[in-house]
Design goal:
Layout (H helix, E strand, L loop, with lengths): L1 H10 L7 E3 H11 L6 H11 L6 E3 H8 L12 H8 L2 H15 L7 E2 L8 E2 L18 H13 L12 E3 L19 E4 L1 H11 L10 H11 L11 E4 L1 H7 L7 E5 L3 H10 L4 E4 L10 E4 L8 E5 L17 E4 L4 E4 L4 H7 L1 E2 L9 H6 L6 H15 L5 E2 L1 H17 L1 H12 L7 H15 L3 H13 L13
Parallel strand pairs: 8-11, 14-15
Antiparallel strand pairs: 1-2, 3-4, 5-6, 6-13, 7-8, 7-12, 9-10, 10-11, 12-13
């Protein structure tokens, strides 16, 4: 046990100091089992060990502190006794090894690993018995992200992506049914133990507005959203920004997801548990609610999404290849729907999701509102430039985006002004620098008169107060 734990701890010595500071110690325990090692339990454990915020320990010191002399008598602990012990600081020091053994992820059927001694990643959607966390808070996403990002950045290869991304095949999966919705596409499958570990850590965090973690919420949706058909297996997938960003060692607060059941079934599951839920129609002509948001919408992160059926139509229904990568939570694999998403993420290339024979016009026609996908193209372009990581693009696709936007800004200006323009370009419209960057893009790709003809009226209507001021060069 000590040797195995030492190997894991060494991975989190982020500055190669051969010591672990208090943040690193907290992080390694949370990563081993974030559902169990809550902030309260970590505070109690560190108090009993005499570890303050300014203390650093060698790996050997840490192991000695948590290891009792009678280690041969560690044995197993009843769940109720273990929880009781954790409420008394005086018992934590001598029992720590047993506690850590008790919460180390048990090898389960739903696990993945790579060839470089990565820890096993247990799926939260399996039926593995876990210790109760009732009335014990989870860490918040913003508490976990800084250290997690440091670890991811230490694993970046020359192409700017995680070094352990590898392609796999369907026959390797224990649950191929989760990939069935994508069988009509030229999809590709990838694994990354580092990405899996990071995503699982984030999912252990608390959903704002609730007392549960993202993991618990997704488990409930996957296991219980079809009460009238106990034989039906539901699947959940993370999609878009969170998956795209984590492959590049970045973290997002977006928790967009898809589910193989209906939005109604998801809403029934979440409302029955008292979780804040928004259940509504999104899209032109939609008559039955197709969208669910769970958690505190005013917070920086919440769970939201659609049935996976919405995203398994022809590729031209989607937006960009780099954005249509899914994380299958049942198999812990990345599903690249177009087969080009991961390669475009590596190349930092902004490309439309078009398969052979599909047209630009068909891509633009499949829109929540005419012009919305085109505005998202501008958003992706400018966000990357602002972050100092500009995207490459296809000149013909960019020219089409400009012409399609010209039409939409003429025929759909009212709908864009009322919601989509301000919603999509919120980051650019919040200050004068963002508006200046937007103006520069419009002028460069659409000509010197396009800004005043079509963009300025919408910017004036949607910009944050004071963002469009006299003298900023774009009024």
């Amino acid at each position: 046990m000590a040797h195995a734990l030492s190997e894991v701890l060494t991975r989190f010595d982020t500055v190669s100091s051969e010591q672990l500071d208090s943040k690193e110690l907290r992080y390694v325990l949370h990563l081993l089992d974030g559902e169990y090692w809550t902030k309260q339990k970590l505070d109690a454990l560190f108090s009993s060990m005499g570890i303050g915020d300014d203390v650093s320990l060698t790996l050997d010191d840490f192991l000695r502190i948590i290891s009792p002399d009678d280690s041969e008598n560690k044995g197993s602990i009843e769940e109720e006794n273990l929880v009781e012990q954790l409420t008394h600081e005086r018992t934590l020091g001598a029992a720590s090894v047993r506690l850590i053994e008790a919460v180390l992820p048990t090898p389960a059927e739903d696990t993945v690993t790579d060839e470089v001694s990565q820890p096993r990643i247990a799926s939260p959607l399996c039926n593995r018995k876990r210790l109760s966390t009732k009335n014990l808070g989870h860490l918040m996403v913003d508490e976990v992200q800084p250290r997690l990002k440091e670890m991811l950045q230490a694993s970046i290869s020359e192409d700017g992506c995680l070094s352990d991304i590898r392609e796999c095949v369907l026959s390797e999966l224990k649950h191929p049914g989760a990939v069935a919705p994508f069988h009509g596409f030229d999809y590709r499958l990838y694994r990354s133990a580092k990405a899996s570990s990071a995503l699982r850590t984030l999912l252990h965090c608390s959903v704002p507005g609730t007392s549960v973690s993202f993991e618990e919420m997704l488990s409930a949706i996957a296991l219980e959203s079809s009460p009238n058909n106990a034989q039906q297996q539901n699947y959940c997938y993370l999609i878009g920004g969170q998956v795209r960003d984590i492959l590049r060692g970045q973290l997002s607060t977006d928790f967009d997801f898809n589910y193989s059941c209906s939005a109604r079934e998801v809403a029934l599951t979440t409302v029955a548990r008292g979780w804040p839920t928004k259940y509504k129609c999104i899209g032109a002509g939609v008559r039955e609610p197709n969208y669910v948001l769970i958690g505190d919408e005013d917070s920086s992160c919440y769970l939201e999404g659609f049935c996976v059926d919405l995203n398994t139509h022809a590729c031209y229904h989607d937006d960009f290849t780099m954005n249509f990568v899914f994380y299958d939570l049942k198999n812990d694999v990345i599903i690249d729907k177009t087969g080009r998403g991961v390669s475009d993420i590596r190349a930092r290339s902004l490309r439309l999701t078009l398969s052979v024979g599909e047209t630009f016009e068909a891509w633009a026609a499949e829109n929540f509102s005419p012009g919305n996908k085109e505005l998202r193209y501008v958003k992706f372009f400018l966000r990357a430039e602002t972050n100092g990581e500009p995207l490459s693009y296809d000149a013909e696709e960019c020219a089409f985006i400009v012409e399609s936007l010209r039409r939409a800004l003429c025929t759909n200006a009212k709908a864009l002004r009322e919601f989509w323009f301000g919603y999509t370009l919120k980051a650019q419209l919040k200050d004068s620098n963002g508006i200046a960057a937007l103006n520069a893009w419009v002028t460069k790709y659409g000509g010197p008169t396009w800004w005043e003809e079509q963009w300025l009226p919408l910017v004036e209507a949607c910009a944050a107060p004071g963002a469009l001021s006299v003298g900023n060069g774009v009024a």
